[in-house]
């Protein structure tokens, strides 16, 4: 009897569909997205850190950039000829020949999660244990149509529920940087090398990430000359953390400590939920260089030419302003009555003369 029971359980588990395929990978990416979004919210005043984290989470404007609703805009540096899942999720390209214009989704955290968790052909429909995606279609092959774009939005809605919502008490914790750096290293250190110059996140480590089967549900990154995976979103996060740590070290020696919880989002009830995706809309209509230029211009103030003009205008307006001030003094005396007294003296002097 026990033998039959064990055999039944074994066969049941053997043939049951795996509904949590890529669950562990997703949980790791989800944690990274949440921590990076938290730092972005707290450091929204820091232009350099904000720029790097926005690119890490949402992607580059010139490549493929997502917004808070999961919609994607493609830039000129993303090859849209035959833009299918393989081309967007892998830097490898067709026939192991990367064009330098592919891997646009693998650039960012959101794009990578879509590559890992969007259903494809002949594989579990409930990837990453997101649930509720069994009937919304699949993304596979070498085409990117309106259907796939709508599918991305559906998957992103599921991702937002788990990866971009924190309580205020979670938001203001001071270990975001350290925990985030450790989480990124944990993911990148487990990438699978194919001995051909590319590293795989999920999949069988040999496919084209086209979504045609379970082994092709993946994202692939090119290796450096030193045999290290070049993961754009991970590199951007590490750059942001380095800049943040440098700023904190500088602030520790000054009288003005750096703000980690000065954002309005950090104020309020500790248990209140914050939608980080809604707060952190990427600044897609201006570049980082433009923002830095604006800051520099503001710091410099008006140019010499403008100051000369201002001086001449000031001279012309001096007489008018004095007359106006004299007239207004009678209507706006100070509490001690000194202005009224001065006005009376002027009037008496005029009568005597």
From TrEMBL:
Compositionally biased spans, kind Basic and acidic residues: 283-294
Domain of life: Eukaryota
GO CC annotations, alphabetized: plasma membrane; side of membrane
Membrane protein topology class: Lipid-anchor; GPI-anchor
Residues of the signal peptide: 1-17
Statement: the UniProt record of this protein carries the keyword Transmembrane helix: no
Region (Disordered): 247-337
Origin species: Trypanosoma congolense (strain IL3000)
Protein's UniProt name: Variant surface glycoprotein
Keyword Transcription regulation: no
Biased segments, Low complexity type: 247-256
Lineage: Eukaryota, Discoba, Euglenozoa, Kinetoplastea, Metakinetoplastina
Domain Trypanosome variant surface glycoprotein B-type N-terminal, first and last residues per copy: 46-252
UniProt-annotated location(s): Cell membrane
Pfam families in the record: VSG_B
Keyword field: Cell membrane, Glycoprotein, GPI-anchor, Lipoprotein, Membrane, Signal
Function, in words: VSG forms a coat on the surface of the parasite. The trypanosome evades the immune response of the host by expressing a series of antigenically distinct VSGs from an estimated 1000 VSG genes.
Compositional bias segments (type: Polar residues): 296-307
């Amino acid at each position: 009897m026990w033998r039959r029971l064990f055999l039944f359980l074994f066969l049941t588990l053997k043939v049951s569909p795996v509904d949590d395929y890529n669950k562990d990978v997703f949980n790791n990416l989800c944690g990274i997205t949440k921590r990076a979004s938290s730092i972005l919210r707290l450091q929204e005043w820091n232009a350099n850190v904000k720029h790097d984290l926005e690119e890490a989470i949402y992607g580059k404007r010139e490549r493929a950039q997502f917004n808070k609703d999961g919609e994607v805009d493609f830039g000129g540096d993303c090859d849209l000829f035959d833009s299918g899942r393989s081309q967007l999720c892998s830097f490898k390209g067709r026939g192991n020949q990367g064009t330098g214009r592919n891997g646009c989704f693998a650039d960012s955290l959101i794009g990578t999660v879509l590559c890992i968790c969007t259903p494809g052909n002949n594989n579990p429909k409930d990837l990453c244990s997101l649930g509720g995606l069994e009937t919304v279609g699949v993304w596979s092959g070498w085409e990117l149509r309106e259907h796939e774009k709508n599918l991305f939005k559906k998957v992103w809605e599921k991702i937002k529920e788990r990866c971009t919502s924190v309580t205020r008490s979670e938001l203001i914790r001071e270990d975001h940087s350290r925990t985030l750096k450790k989480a990124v290293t944990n993911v990148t250190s487990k990438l699978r090398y194919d001995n051909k110059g590319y590293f795989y996140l999920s999949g069988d480590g040999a496919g084209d990430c086209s979504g045609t089967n379970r082994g092709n549900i993946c994202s692939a990154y090119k290796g450096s000359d030193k045999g290290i995976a070049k993961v754009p979103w991970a590199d951007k996060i590490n750059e942001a953390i380095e800049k943040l740590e440098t700023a904190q070290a500088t602030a520790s020696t000054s009288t003005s400590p750096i703000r980690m919880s000065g954002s309005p989002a950090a104020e309020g009830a500790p248990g209140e939920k914050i939608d980080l995706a809604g707060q952190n809309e990427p600044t897609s209509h201006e570049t980082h260089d433009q923002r830095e230029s604006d800051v520099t211009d503001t710091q410099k103030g008006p140019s010499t030419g403008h100051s000369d003009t201002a001086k001449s205008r000031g001279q012309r307006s001096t007489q008018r302003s004095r007359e106006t001030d004299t007239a207004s003094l009678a209507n706006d005396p100070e509490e001690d009555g000194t202005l009224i007294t001065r006005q009376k003296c002027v009037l008496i002097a005029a009568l005597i003369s």
